Amino acid sequence: VGLVGLLQSFADLLKLVVKYKLIVPQMRDWLSWVGLFLLILVASSYCVLFALYGSGEGSSNWVLWFVVVTSLTGYSLMSIGWGSYNKFALMSCIRSAFSS
């Protein structure tokens, strides 16, 4: 699982992507792919943002960039749920998007 369970959510995401996106690819779930790539972009943006802040080379308005990146998380979760064509996944992603 990882160090005290810190990598559990990443392992679950990787399992879902491999299980549903790579084994049975369909052309109708392009919206889900957009959400997945947006979620990867958000995660890497967090890494860059915190690395720049930690090194002291970040700009003075890093809080604004943090809010911008955080707002993209809701859009990515909504598009993943909407692109899955499953009402339970859609409700779960809506709940996650509103709580983030």
Mind explaining what this structure looks like?
Keywords: Membrane, Mitochondrion, Transmembrane, Transmembrane helix. This is NADH dehydrogenase subunit 1. Its main location: membrane. By secondary structure, the chain is mostly helical. The protein has one domain. 76% of the residues lie in helices and 0% in strands. The chain contains four helices and no strands. The chain starts with 7 loop residues before the first helix and ends with a helix. The mean pLDDT is 77.
Residues in helices, as a percent range: over 70%
Helix and strand element order = HHHH
Largest sheet: none
Number of strands: 0
Range of strand content: under 5%
How would you describe the shape? Answer: globular
Structural class: mainly alpha
Assembly type of the chains comes to: single chain
Domains (count): 1
The unreliable regions are none
Number of helices: 4
Q: Give the distance, in angstroms, between the N- and C-terminal Cα atoms.
A: 24 Å
Report Rg: 15 Å
Q: Overall mean pLDDT score?
A: 77
SSE topology sketch:
Elements: H1 8-22, H2 30-55, H3 62-83, H4 87-99
Any key phrases for this structure?
transmembrane; 76% helix; 100 residues; transmembrane helix; mainly alpha; mitochondrion; globular
What is this entry, summarized?
One of its GO terms (cellular component) is membrane. This protein has about 100 residues and is an all-alpha fold.
